Automatic annotation (TrEMBL):
Keyword Transmembrane helix tagged: yes
Name of the protein in question: Uncharacterized protein
Transmembrane segments annotated in the record for this chain: 108-138, 150-169, 196-220
Protein species of origin: Massiliimalia timonensis
UniProt entry keywords in alphabetical sequence: Membrane, Transmembrane, Transmembrane helix
Length: 230
């Protein structure tokens, strides 16, 4: 399916944006982004199964054009333009099949969240971990629905996961040189037997290393899919 109608809307939008004085300091970047999207869509045949999304792009674009008036509210105009640009990026991801990258991102997020919830209470207190239950749940829902706030909530797990992982990697370095003392300390703090304490002493630093790798992968994958959320 050809895109002449959408290209025409984006061309007119670019012209209106260039003529407007209401887009603030981000005007040049927004104009450049819309122009780049216009070029991208011009070289793309939209699959017929996305006809509804394509029509929505045209409808939303025409509606946005009506807001480009001399008496328009500057902040409202900027917000609506940024939202439409985000919608264009997400739709382009649909049309080109990039949306499949969200699934690996979601899986990495879940794995990081699980390991974070397991490992963080031992260093950062259980309360700190409990605080993240609601953001993690909201992120799960938001990522599935491709909502931008869900994406940012998912990315919030990266810094705290890296922080937790670093603590356990450092603990692993200590364990390598002081294994017997580390086991004894775990026996004393947990009140469990030697076998359980030994497993805990070995497993947690290993899981911490895994969490570090997964957090870095999540950061990379998150960067790749950042434009697929609205």
């Amino acid at each position: 399916m050809k895109n002449e109608e959408l290209i025409e809307v984006l061309g007119e939008l670019t012209q209106r944006m260039e003529e407007s004085d209401l887009l603030g300091s981000g005007k040049a970047r927004l104009v450049r982004t819309v122009h780049e999207l216009q070029v991208d869509f011009a070289s793309l045949d939209v699959p017929k199964r996305f006809d509804e999304v394509y029509r929505s792009l045209i409808s939303k674009g025409r509606k946005l054009l009506t807001y480009y008036r001399v008496d328009a509210d500057s902040k409202e105009l900027q917000d609506k333009t940024k939202y439409y640009v985000g919608y264009l990026h997400a739709a382009y991801g649909d049309f080109t099949g990039q949306v499949k990258n969200i699934q690996p991102f979601y899986r990495l997020f879940l794995l990081c969240s699980i390991l974070f919830m397991i490992l963080s209470p031992m260093y950062l207190t259980p309360i700190f971990s409990i605080i993240f239950i609601i953001p993690i749940a909201l992120a799960m829902k938001g990522v599935k629905q491709r909502i931008r706030s869900g994406y940012w909530l998912a990315m919030l797990i990266v810094p705290v996961s890296i922080m937790t992982a670093v603590m356990w990697v450092r603990n692993g370095v200590y364990v390598l040189g002081n294994f017997s003392q580390a086991v004894a300390q775990n026996m004393e703090s947990s009140g469990m037997g030697q076998t359980f304490s030994t497993v805990l002493t070995v497993a947690c630093p290993i899981l911490g290393s895994v969490l570090m790798v997964l957090s870095i992968l999540l950061l990379i994958q998150g960067y790749k899919v950042r434009k697929l959320f609205v």
